[in-house]
Amino acid sequence: MVLVQIPMYNEREVYRLSIGAACGLSWPSDRLIVQVLDDSTDPTVKGLVELECKCWGNKGKIVKYEVRNNRKGYKAGALKEGMLRDYVQQCDYVAIFDADFQPEPDFLLRTIPYLVRNPQIGLVQAHWEFVNTNECLMTRIQKMTLHYHFKVEQEGGSSTFAFFGFNGTAGVWRISALEEAGGWKDRTTVEDMDLAVRAGLKGWKFVYVSDVKVKSELPSNLKTYRYQQHRWTCGAANLFRKVGAEILLTKEVPFWWKFYLLYSFFFVRKVVAHVVPFMLYCVVIPFSVLIPEVTVPVWGVVYVPTTITLLHAIRNTSSIHFIPFWILFENVMSFHRTKALFIGLLELGGVNEWVVTEKLGNGSNTKPVPQILERPPCRFWDRWTMSEILFSIFLFFCATYNLVYGDDYYFIYIYLQAIAYLVVGTGFCGTQSANS
After folding, report:
1. Among all residues, which ones are annotated catalytic?
2. Per residue, what are the HEC states of 403-424?
3. For strand 93-96 and strand 62-67, is the pairing parallel, antiparallel, or unpaired?
4. 370 burial level (CB within 10 Å; 0-12, 13-18, 19+)
5. What angle do CA 293, 420, 139 make, to 5 degrees?
6. Distance (Å, rounded) from C-alpha 176 to C-alpha 88?
7. Where are the alpha helices (DSSP H) in 255-322?
8. 335, 349, 350, 390: least CB-packed within 10 angstroms?
9. Which 8-state DSSP code applies to residue 31?
10. How many whole angstroms separate alpha carbon 239 and alpha carbon 249?
11. Four-CA torsion 52, 58, 63, 69, nearest 10 degrees
12. SS3 for 312?
């Protein structure tokens, strides 16, 4: 018996896609329960989602439409409350899909067998595939970053330690593993990673299946992407703060597993990976042209960055011509992520800020439902981010100083990075939506 959970929040553009894909899964109808967890605040959207659930129910599918009186705990709260329903007790496994995810009909047929055949496996994670990759340069860059995340971090963790961070969607959990880990908690904005860490500490193993792909949508406007990255970075850092001692003191897993989790998974990937690009390429190198006594070795400026770039390019040969843009954009975003990182580590204001990633239904075969009210056009000054603009001014100054007084060619890179900061700071990146 399989439960499929679909958490939603005002998902006007994609609710039909996700509900339709879940109800279209190849699994006996009497052994599949689709649970739509609707936290929508728009009564019109709630009515549309409920009507869609009833339509599939009339076709013989078991579809449960669940709503709450509040949004306590956001997505984690909705998933937790959904697991308390009486009919869930008869289910062995739960598949989770965000509202923009569209699994293929054979998704369960290709993932559930891993759980059935090996009682030690608690989670099977599928690969994300994107329907709007070619929408703009920003979505192409995101694909490159996420492809590296899945191929190296997820598949590497699965192959070596049978552990990786659950991505919160396109995965199937053994319900007994989820319950043994303590269920969903809303103490951070990365409830999926939190659950994975707690399940891993209980000895459960995870499997990443790269050939099972689930269609989804990438954020195509900058404001939405910034909110998403803030939530992912800040939440992971805050979780590190909360579970670091617990990981160190647990006796249920071997030392090397704890070392991998603390050093590689958290410290390197969730802390160092954000701070180093910003400090080296946006602070140390620009300041080195202003202070002649500071010299950056060639290996730090050329060899190491080139090696890292080539490692990314190997997995994205079709997008190798976007590598320069990827470098500049990721360096800019490292500034944003570093701020989010320290907010999470120090638990400053905004540590639990949760803004749902806007979905536009782009790249799908169905047209979005027309808006009842016309949205106001986006104003130019609403797109500005002053921190990035001020940083671009600083970089322009450093580049010009190097051009006039320096005896190297750092100004070429610094000028390009300054332009990237200015483009992002003024909002001329990605597509523009009505509320961006």
Report:
1. 39, 192
2. HHHCCCCHHHHHHHHHHHHHHH
3. unpaired
4. exposed
5. 135
6. 12
7. 255-259, 273-279, 285-290, 298, 304-314
8. 349
9. G
10. 16
11. 60
12. helix
Tokens of 128: 């994300």
- Cα–Cα distance for residue pair 228/90, rounded to 1 Å: 35
Delineate the domains of the chain, giving CATH numbers in brackets: 2-220 (3.90.550.10), 229-354+375-435 (no CATH)
List 4's β-bridge partners, or say none: 34, 95
Per-residue pLDDT of the chain (436 residues; tens, 9 = 90+): 999 999 999 999 999 999 999 999 999 999 999 999 999 999 999 999 999 999 999 999 999 999 998 889 999 999 999 999 999 999 999 999 999 999 999 999 999 999 999 999 999 999 999 999 999 999 999 998 998 899 888 999 999 999 999 999 999 999 999 999 999 999 999 999 999 999 999 999 999 999 999 999 999 989 899 999 999 999 999 999 999 999 999 998 999 999 999 999 999 999 999 999 999 999 999 999 999 888 888 887 778 877 877 776 666 677 788 888 999 999 999 999 999 999 999 999 888 888 888 777 765 444 443 333 334 455 656 678 899 999 999 999 999 999 999 888 899 999 999 999 999 999 888 876 544 4
Both tokens of 132, joined, read 């709007």
pTM of the model: 0.91
Query: How many residues in total does the chain contain?
Result: 436
Which residues, other chains included, contact 331 with Cβ-Cβ below 8 Å and sequence gap of 6+? 277, 278, 281, 282, 417, 420
CA 103 to chain centre: 18
